[in-house]
Fold this protein.
Amino acid sequence: MDQRPLALVTGVGRTVGIGAGITDRLAESGWDVAFTYWTPYDRRMEWGEERGAAEAVTARLAERGAACAAVEADLADPGAPARVFDAVEERLGRPVTALVLCHCESVDSGLLDTTVESFDRHFAVNTRASWLLIREFGRRFAGPAGTGRVVALTSDHTVGNLPYGASKGALDRITLAAARELAHLGVTANVVNPGPVDTGWMTEPLRRQMTDQTPLGRLGTPRDTAHLVDFLCSPEGQWVNGQLLMSNGGLA
């Protein structure tokens, strides 16, 4: 039997998050999956820490036949990306074939009330860490040409969410650069904007507003995003490269 390819998914801190939905779908499609999480981030957000989330995600992946490695990592540390790849390769015994970037720092603040500390942390996590992860992936990729994948999740939100939106915009450019700069390795790189996906962070008025603005009349789910990421990581998705894809139900 051929060995399953290995995906590394960052930002899987909660069982209900987009990252967890992506890990589930990739495992169902025949991937082994490593993932990162950082509990202190969830702990200080309004949804709070989900105790046992890493163990629960690992169990779900095992049920789907996937080998798994969960790595806790503070991606604000510039040394973390290399350590994550080291840990994954050591525990699962081979290099990563697909890198899916779901991690983020996201604290609502605008032009006038964003602190320098918060701004810098957003760029350290959302932008610098993503660059370092992609760079590490490119340096280590050893798969057959045409099999490598980078997929990054982004957002077009800016008003009232300045550091998040600005740092995600920079992430877009880094990922799209990878589509050209890693092409000689046979690696594709794409950006996905999942639109309004409520994983517990939306208020009820915001849920109604986003639902009303979406032609399909509902919010997105982690599974919606996961289906697109799964396609991009598949052999059938090889011809899609250097794109920013909107997967948002037609949100106006």
